[in-house]
Design brief:
- By secondary structure, the protein is of the alpha/beta class.
- The protein has 2 domains: 57 residues; 222 residues, no CATH class.
- It has 12 helices and 9 strands.
- It starts with a helix and ends in a 7-residue tail after the last strand.
- GO terms for molecular function: cellulose synthase (UDP-forming) activity.
- One of its GO terms (biological process) is cell wall organization.
- It is a multi-pass membrane protein.
Length: 385
């Protein structure tokens, strides 16, 4: 019996953390692509034959048409590289949790913003709160907000978000609500809720707290300055003075919560994720390299604070529709056989509130779907961010 258990345990340890399956319908798509290529070759041949037979007056026009057909054809051929062998990837989160348990790695989450006008602080804070409430041990999560605008309004909003997170994080995990972005979650009216349930009571209280927080942030943003009584509440505001501008300021690093601090706990006594505000130094005439420079600054600062081996980068106007995104990604990184071959996991993006006819091409059909007459094959997807 002992030998059998040992064999069973060994087999469990050898089980992969993810699998890859080839999508059905690949042969039909290849046949469809082959017919298109034949059509392109025939068009190119026709153009080449037509050019010498036309008058000099029209030959230049046919030459332009041939050039346009060649460009269009090569563009179509290149776009088929992601459609020739469509695969689905399935992570096994249960195996990950069973195998690693307390040995799960730390994760540093980077959120970048640059302008409190173009990127309203209340929207950015909703993103920050969504990543703080992922289904992952909070003591192993560190969230860094990079503010390239060096705005005290953004710092104030993050301070308000850190207070609200003490109620939001336990609420989301207790009831497993989705999505974890409070702005998106509360924008949908919950019509199936029993008003007498404990969930309804907690939902109402947390929503009121969120609306109060958002109202305070929007009010300060409208005024364009932080009231004196608020400035006196946190020493971090001392970093801002009359000489600080968006393009000229010193480095500002403020740790609003650290998971090793016994005081950094939510309303239920659970530890909060580490939360850090960063605004890197900027000087006129010095190239700051935009978001690449912000990421480099985040790497240097996070090395001194948490130094996690895994980094998750999230745009400030995005949120995860699945709170298990970290576990999904770790299934690829920590797989014993193929994990060493993987260094980057990309989540597809999906946009809400699309305009009519999607004139900005936000649906991303060429990336997320393979379109063949009568057949639609979904591209690999873990979770949308």
């Amino acid at each position: 019996m002992k030998d059998d258990k040992g064999i069973m345990g060994a087999n469990k340890e050898d089980e992969p953390l993810f699998e890859t399956k080839i999508a059905r319908g690949g042969a039909a798509h290849k046949l469809f692509s082959f017919t298109i290529i034949i059509g392109l070759v025939l068009i190119w041949t026709y153009r080449l034959i037509l050019i010498p037979t036309t008058s000099r007056r029209h030959s230049w026009f046919n030459g332009i048409l041939f050039f346009a057909d060649v460009l269009l054809g090569f563009y179509w051929i290149i776009t088929q590289s992601g459609r020739c062998r469509v695969v689905y990837r399935y992570p096994f989160k249960d195996r990950l949790i069973t195998r690693y348990k307390e040995k799960l790695p730390k994760v540093d989450i980077f959120v970048c913003t640059a302008d409190p006008i173009l990127e309203p602080p209340s929207m950015v804070m909703s993103t920050v709160l969504s990543v703080m409430s992922y289904n992952y041990p909070t003591e192993k999560i560190s969230v860094y907000l990079s503010d390239d605008g060096g705005s005290e309004l953004t710092f104030y909003a993050l301070l308000e978000a850190s207070k609200f997170s003490k109620s939001w994080i336990p609420f989301t995990k207790k009831y497993n609500v989705e999505p974890r972005s409070p702005e998106v979650y509360f924008s949908h009216q919950n019509t199936h809720m029993d008003n007498e349930s404990s969930f309804a009571h907690d939902w109402t209280n947390v929503k009121e707290l969120y609306e109060d927080m958002k109202s305070r942030i929007d009010s300060v943003e409208a005024k364009g300055c932080i009231p004196g009584e608020i400035v006196d509440q946190h020493k971090g505001f001392s970093e801002w003075n009359s000489k600080v501008t968006k393009h000229d300021h010193q480095s500002i690093v403020q740790i609003l919560a650290h998971n090793s601090d016994p005081k950094a706990v939510d309303i239920e006594g659970n530890r909060l994720p580490t939360l850090v505000y960063l605004s890197r130094e900027k000087k006129p005439g010095w190239p700051h390299n935009f978001k690449a420079g912000a990421m480099n600054a985040l790497l240097r600062v996070s090395e001194k604070i948490s130094n996690a081996p895994i980094i998750l980068n999230v745009d400030c106007d995005m949120y995860a529709n699945d709170p298990d995104v970290i576990q999904d990604a770790l299934c690829f990184f920590l797989d014993e056989k193929k994990g060493q071959q993987i260094s980057y996991v990309q989540y597809p993006q999906q946009y809400n509130n699309l305009v009519k006819n999607d004139i900005y091409a936000n649906v991303n059909l060429p990336i997320n779907e393979v379109c063949v007459p009568i057949i639609y094959l979904t591209m690999p997807s873990l979770s949308y961010i």
